[in-house]
Amino acid sequence: MDIIADEYDENAASTRVDTLYSLKALKNSIVGNPVAKNRVVTDKSVPLVVGWLNATLAETGDEENELLLEKIRIEAAHVVSSLAYDSASGTLELLRYSSLQALLHAILHLQPDDSFELRLALCRALKSIVVSCAEIVGPSLWGLGREYDPDTKEAARSALEELFQLFLVSTSNLTPSSSDRGLRYISSPS
């Protein structure tokens, strides 16, 4: 779910400012607070947060609104990171609303002029979801950590499988460079 901010609405800028402050308040309320994370999961605000990850503006060159929208995307990514961290219910809700796909889309469509802070926030959010899925699926296989219900484990396993299949497809035409011991990849000739 992408959100396209309306450039021409007089109230759009104030609405985006309100959204930015709401996302900051939400982030600050859920960091380290499992009860608040569960409340966010049950009040169904996750799809709105996920939608802001890929919000765009019409090409108008309005630098102030572009900066504001970038800040909103950063805060949305921080909320996603916080929800995924140490919260199986938060991770499951994020997966339910395709946050993994939304983050991959946002990362793949980053522009050269996007800030380092946005890039970092999106990558951190992706990492948080992947790590949370791995913690749900992995440790209980060896009798370590908490045991999760089968539906939660299956959702996390499916998300990881989808991510790694995407990775395999995207790297199938790459071969390691012999000069750098495989640490960097170059395109193989077709």
Structural commentary:
By secondary structure, the protein is mainly alpha-helical. It has 8 helices and 4 strands, in the order E-H-H-H-E-H-H-H-H-H-E-E. It has helices at 12-30, 34-42, 46-52, 63-84, 88-96, 99-108, 116-137, 150-171; strands at residues 4-5, 56-57, 174-176, 185-187. The strands form 2 sheets. Strands 1-2 form a two-stranded parallel sheet. Strands 3-4 form a two-stranded antiparallel ribbon. Helix 4 (63-84) runs parallel beside helix 7, helix 5 (88-96) crosses helix 7 (116-137) and helix 7 crosses helix 8 (150-171). The radius of gyration is 19 Å and the shape is globular. The model is unreliable at 1-8 and 176-190 (pLDDT under 50).
Q: Looking across the biggest beta sheet, what order are the strands in?
A: 1-2
Radius of gyration: 19 Å
SSE run: EHHHEHHHHHEE
Provide the low-confidence segments as ranges.
1-8, 176-190
- Average pLDDT works out at 80
How is this fold's topology laid out?
Layout: E1 4-5, H1 12-30, H2 34-42, H3 46-52, E2 56-57, H4 63-84, H5 88-96, H6 99-108, H7 116-137, H8 150-171, E3 174-176, E4 185-187
Parallel strand pairs: 1-2
Antiparallel strand pairs: 3-4
Helix pairs in contact: 1-4, 3-4, 4-7, 5-7, 5-8, 6-7, 7-8
Descriptive key words:
mainly alpha, two-stranded parallel ribbon, disordered N terminus, 4 strands
Gist of the model:
The radius of gyration is 19 Å and the shape is globular. The protein has eight helices and four strands.
